[in-house]
Design goal:
It is a single chain. About 50% of the residues lie in helices and about 15% in strands. The chain is α/β, with parallel strands linked by helices. It folds into 2 domains: about 140 residues, Rossmann fold (3-Layer(aba) Sandwich); about 60 residues, Winged helix-like DNA-binding domain superfamily/Winged helix DNA-binding domain (Arc Repressor Mutant, subunit A, Orthogonal Bundle), CATH 1.10.10.10. A 6-stranded parallel beta sheet has the order 2-1-3-4-5-6, with helices on both faces. Helix 3 links the parallel strand 3 and strand 4. Helix 4 packs across helix 6. It is globular and about 50 Å long. The chain starts with a strand and ends in a 6-residue tail after the last helix.
């Protein structure tokens, strides 16, 4: 049996430790790394290129949906599974749009996550209970008819800046985290706000909360 390599990304260390312990007891599973925020998740996954990335939907620095979108490009053979407390259709649709292979609710049992990992590692999409497997095709079909979302016009860097600003980081903080200059941060910030038709930081924070990019 081929060993399935896994990276766990969650901002709560106790949650990661719990998952590592439970998944480590499964035959054929190997947790090769952990990440405590979205930027770290992208960095670690890109470097190690695991078979599966299990990532929380709401993560600091970079949310799980954006992590998934970037990983789909940077490590295309890695199958991402979103862990979420939301069963709302828009989140599932966006997860699939961004390249997620699985979507598992946090209220599910560990057996659900184990099944999801095995399924996506074998190249099959997985939606956890109570989301129906039969809904995958319907969700995918809906993504084809969605109207253009201004958020989808943002670059990867602009999305990173959006979340970090919404979390309260200053331009200098963001520059240090992303290894770019403050002037570049300001440029990305201005461009992002123009695309989203936002005029103030308060508008930006409200937008980020509404989209589920940051916690209330």
């Amino acid at each position: 049996m081929k060993t399935i390599t896994i990276v766990l990304a969650d901002d709560h260390q106790i949650v990661r430790q719990g998952f590592r312990s439970l998944l480590g007891n499964q035959e054929g599973f190997s947790v090769v790394a952990e990440a405590g925020d979205g930027l770290e998740a992208v960095k670690v996954t890109t470097a190690l290129k695991p078979d599966v990335l299990v990532v929380d939907l709401v993560m600091p620095c970079l949310n799980g949906l954006e992590v998934t979108r970037q990983i789909a490009k940077l490590s295309p053979n890695t199958k991402a599974i979103i862990l979420s407390m939301y069963m709302d259709e828009p989140y599932v649709i966006e997860a699939l749009q961004n390249g997620a292979w699985g979507y598992v609710l946090k209220e599910s049992s560990i057996s659900d996550l184990v099944k999801a990992i095995r399924e996506v590692a074998d190249g099959r999409h997985y939606l956890g209970s109570p989301l129906s497997e039969l809904a995958i095709a319907a969700y995918k079909e809906k993504t084809k008819t969605l109207s253009l979302d201004p958020y989808n016009t943002l670059t990867a860097r602009e999305r990173e800046v959006l979340q970090l600003v919404a979390e309260g980081h200053t331009n200098s903080d963001i520059a240090a985290k992303l290894f770019i200059s403050q002037r570049t941060v300001e440029s990305h910030r201005a461009s992002m706000m123009q695309k989203l038709s936002l005029t103030s930081r308060a508008d930006l924070v409200a937008y980020a909360i509404k989209r589920g990019l940051v916690r209330r």
